[in-house]
Specification:
28% of the residues lie in helices and 16% in strands. With 569 residues, it is an alpha/beta fold.
Length: 569
């Protein structure tokens, strides 16, 4: 063949491969019928705290871009970026004043576009945090709304007369403390805010609000965003007749009366909006991740939708708020997630709760327990969502003085509740000053002393570190077909100390055994009822030393050990 003919042939092959790849990328599901988000590992980035590129003590988009190779090597497929839109920062970005721009403290739209392009190059998707329930009081919509009772945006928010002079319309309690109503003297009415007074709730009963907010999602889909995490999705609607909530005994952590929020939380109209929002997402093969606080399988199931046509990934906070190592309790919560008929979504921490390292740790075996929890939520059937720093064992660094508190909830709740600053501290990259997060003298939040030992640089050199265990586990998560596609089969369900299950796929299965106790355990498995008659298994990953022998009838486990093995028919 002549040189020219070879070049033409190579060009034809290249074009065909490119078209084939493009088609594969566009496919909504894989060969097994799974969408892209079902096999993805998500990673929450709190942008203020991830990486500071310009030395001002606050993380930014260029900082995130600089760490994409780290995230790729770790095994991350999608990053959820907490709000980076323009905001007065009363609630650190969850008070949005412009949904279609980037806050200057984080960079520019050009910086976002570069981040999106760099992430795509590494096959990492970007998920934005959509503050869907409320805006900032500085949003142009609200500024117009409060200007007059007849303003164009008046009905974009919830305005009501008080019960009587000086009395709010209802007894509803704000999540940030005090009444949910604030009197505005300009028009002589109260406006509703479930969170801070600077975060007025949108009126989702107004079709104009729905259209405007849906258009926001379309704006970001066109810029390459692959989906949204939906903030405070339980709270979109309130009782239009303004019934008082029933009062319960006692007070909450902020010192307010406890109430049963039956008239301003989880109203059925939420689901109508979510179905329509899902339709918009489906136009772009995008995913919706829900901040869904549920108390039962029935509630969790509702957020998937009757035909799996609402939120694809409602977060199961029943799982991650189980703050103790208990094989029976985790077994129960996994069964709940499995019973919904939807694709489970597992998290063990986020920016609103104490870090998993301290919630589950016993103060002595925290590193082992961190690996144990990774072995749990990264091997279950479903999509895991990691929180930055979990992979290195970051711990809380709670403020010790009220004057150091940044979180508005901590300011209100002090000293009984110290707020959420402790779980939002800077990412620990190395053992240098400020953990390598910033060149500034002082970061926006201080790093804990543990950053000297628990950081990316140090743990990358230690084969027994939490980070190296995460990396090995995530390789398994991505490459093992049983972990990707297999069903979940609970084993030894009466064992009070050891949580064990199979991820079963065709003729193969992965056995996961987790010792949730501080004592050595010996367990045995007979898998013949599951179609696996061999008494031996091949070890894939373990934290036990020495590793279990591979005999399924006598598996010896160290305290808090993880044992993951391949079994075949």
């Amino acid at each position: 063949m002549s040189t020219n003919l070879r070049v033409v042939a190579l060009l034809v092959v290249s074009v065909c491969l490119a078209l084939s790849y493009s088609h594969a990328q566009a496919r909504p599901v894989d060969a097994e019928g799974h969408a892209w988000w079902q096999h993805a590992v998500f990673y929450e980035v709190y942008p203020r705290s991830f990486a500071d590129s310009n030395g001002d003590g606050i993380g930014d988009l260029k900082g995130i871009e600089s760490k994409l190779d780290y995230l790729k090597e770790l095994g991350v497929d999608a990053i959820w970026i907490s709000p980076c839109f323009p905001s007065p920062q009363v609630d650190f970005g969850y008070d949005v004043s412009d949904y279609e721009n980037i806050d200057p403290m984080y960079g520019t739209m050009a910086d976002f576009d570069r981040l999106a392009k760099a992430a795509k190059k590494r096959h990492i998707r970007i998920i934005m945090d959509f503050v869907i329930n409320h805006t900032s009081e500085q949003h142009p919509w609200f500024l117009d709304s409060k200007s007059s009772r007849t303003s164009a945006h008046r009905d974009w928010y919830i305005w009501r007369d008080g019960k009587a002079e000086g009395q709010p319309p209802t007894n509803w309690i704000s999540g940030f403390g005090g009444s949910t109503w604030k009197f505005d003297p300009t028009t002589g009415q109260y406006y509703y805010h479930y969170f801070a007074t600077a975060q007025p709730d949108l009126n989702w009963r107004n079709p104009a609000v729905e259209k405007a907010m849906f258009d926001v999602t379309r704006f970001w889909y066109k810029r390459g965003v692959s989906g949204f995490r939906l903030d405070a999705v339980d709270l979109l609607f309130e009782d239009p007749d303004l019934h008082d909530n029933p009062v319960l005994p006692g007070k909450n952590e902020l010192g307010d009366l406890k109430t049963d929020e039956k008239y301003n939380d989880k109203l059925p109209e939420n689901h109508d909006v979510l179905r329509r929002l899902r339709s918009v997402a489906d136009e772009s093969d995008a995913v919706l991740v829900g901040e869904t606080y549920t108390i039962s399988a029935a509630e969790l199931k509702e957020y998937y939708g009757a035909h799996n046509n609402e939120i694809q990934l409602p977060m199961d906070f029943m799982f991650c708020t189980l703050d103790k190592l208990s094989a029976p309790e985790f077994r129960k919560q996994i069964a709940i997630a499995e019973s919904t008929g939807g694709w489970p979504t597992y998290v063990i921490g986020n920016h609103d709760m104490d870090r998993s390292f301290v919630r589950y740790g016993d103060g002595k075996h925290n590193d082992q327990i961190a690996k144990l929890m990774a072995g749990l939520y990264l091997t279950l059937r479903g999509t895991p969502i990691m929180y930055y720093g979990e992979e290195i064992g970051m711990e809380n660094n709670n403020p010790t003085r009220k004057e150091d508190v940044k979180d508005p909830m901590g300011v209100t709740g002090w000293p009984g509740y110290k707020g959420r600053d402790g779980e939002r501290t800077p990412m620990q990259w190395d053992d240098s000053a400020n953990a390598g997060f910033t060149q500034a003298a002082t970061p926006w939040l201080p790093v804990p002393p543990s950053s000297k030992t628990h950081n990316v640089a140090s743990e990358s050199k230690d084969p027994n570190s939490i980070l190296e265990f995460y990396k090995q586990l995530l390789v398994l998560h991505h490459r093992n077909q049983a972990l990707l596609e297999g069903d979940y089969v609970a084993l030894n369900q009466d064992d009070p100390n050891v949580l064990a299950y199979l991820r079963r796929y065709k003729k193969e299965a992965v056995l996961v055994v987790l010792n949730m106790s501080g004592t050595a355990q010996h367990v045995g498995f007979n898998l013949s009822a599951e179609g696996f008659f061999s008494a031996k298994a091949k070890t894939l990953l373990t934290t036990s030393a020495p590793a279990p022998s591979g005999r399924l009838d006598q598996v010896a486990l160290e305290p808090f050990a993880v044992y993951i093995a391949q079994v075949s028919r």
